[in-house]
Design a protein that fits this description.
Number of domains: 1
Largest sheet: 4 strands, parallel
Strand content: 5-15%
CATH topology: TIM Barrel
Low-confidence stretches: none
Shape: flat
Length: about 160
Amino acid sequence: ELGWISKVYVNRPAVVKHAEEIKRWRRVKGNWQAAWLLKAVTCIDLTTLSGDDTPSNVHRLCFKAKHPIREDLLKALDMHDKGITVAAVCVYPARVTDAVNALKAAGCNIPVASVAAGFPSGQTPLETKLAEIKLAVEYGAREIDIVISRSLVLSGQWE
């Protein structure tokens, strides 16, 4: 049921005011800054969405996902034993198996995400979108980033 979408109201002046307030917030410094930056790394999906991706490209990306920060920097922050990794590795459905195997071989449990449903434009038939999502999940993707049709959004056809 998508009727609620037509009822969504955004208080634009309030959003703009809050955005301006955020710009005036005091910056985080010192150890807190390092802590926030390390936390930000753990929220990142490390992604490769290149038309010429190969298994070796994906393998290198997975290594970087497990080791996103240089070891000497982590040791300097006394964070070398905290298991700092990115949140996920994101690849096209055709590369999901490569990513799953590389991460398994590296002995880590970083989830694999996959773009699907006609990424990046969303301009594929619904049946194709669903088949692509199904295959990505069968290959081992634990997250699917989908794309909705921009033309439908721009014309207000939310259903």
